[in-house]
Amino acid sequence: MIRDMNDAASRDQPARARSGGAQAAPRTHAAVLGGLPEVLSRFGVRWEPVLEAEGLTLADIQDPERSVSFSAMDRISGECLRLTRCPHVGLLLAQRVNLQSFGIAGRLARNAPSVGDALRELASYFALHDTGGLISTDLHAGKVTLSYGLYVTGLRHLDQIYDFCVVVVANVMRQLCGGGWKADAMQLPRRRPADVRPYRDIRAAPLRFDSVQAGVQFTQDWLSRPVIDADPFLHALLADRASAALQVQDPLLCDDVRRTIRLLLMADQCSREEVARRLGMHPRTLGRRLQQCGTTFQDLLDETRLEVARQLLRGTRSSVARIAASLGYHDPTVFTRAFRRWTGTTPRDYRAGQAGAP
Q1: d(CA 102, CA 53)
Q2: CA dihedral 33, 72, 242, 60 (to 10 degrees)
Q3: Bridge partners of 150?
Q4: pLDDT tens, residue by residue, 3-62
Q5: Hey, how many other C-beta atoms are within 10 angstroms of the C-beta on 331?
Q6: Helix crossing, 253-266 with 283-292: angle to 10°?
């Protein structure tokens, strides 16, 4: 199991009992910050104070079994942006992140028999180390989209975080497939920056800004290819260990439901029945357990849709109709009515009001 760190953000709430309904402070791998010292040093900036402000040390960001809160990651992203004045610092911070940064889930995927198996295992065990986002693969018309979705609220530097995530997803594919792999497209849920050269230089793939998800697209045939230098014996040992860790993990039911809703929204197949099936219970059982937590499936669905809608309205120029469709609303007017009910304003007015926000 991942070892949680008491970062200086005692601002983040501690984990609660399993039956609680409120969302725990989401956490992710501390090792994804491993490139921070090198990047800040390149700009002539001392990196130690940036980590120390969040209660982190160099040893912490070199340990794949450590975790850090997403709120701390958000503050670190903002501080790196402020200190370097580099609008694409998220791209730079991600360049050295690979499967080894993701603890047992990453090492398991690294030794899977095929690329498709690796991606399935990475998605299945990712929650052992990351409780605020999820890996998803979608196959359509011979193209695979490997994406990372966030369902964390209150992040202020989503453009940097999603820049970071897209590069990491591409790094994962290059590590699994070798140097011959190339993305057909990189999808970024952010506005097009004034200077796109850093994005082209880093991964040399067609860029799709204002997307509704962060990820890379590639042809289906890569899924059947063997993973480069995989170790079958090590894979078997890691699979047993990962399964045991998942069984003793103590996630909150509401967090599980939020995570599953976010995954199914990305796949456009979200329903109470499908969420219950994914969690191994009857829909009525799910309803009763959520009621005991003081909430309902519809409440959690609305909360998740609202947070994703806010992210996309704030960070992209995607049309309201496209955002509505990505959230499972096939009629934009239904989405607009729901958004007004949640916030007291329309999606367009919300976007206009956020135009000057950081």
Answers
A1: 23
A2: 50
A3: 133
A4: 333 333 333 333 333 334 444 678 898 999 999 999 999 999 999 999 999 999 999 999
A5: 11
A6: 130
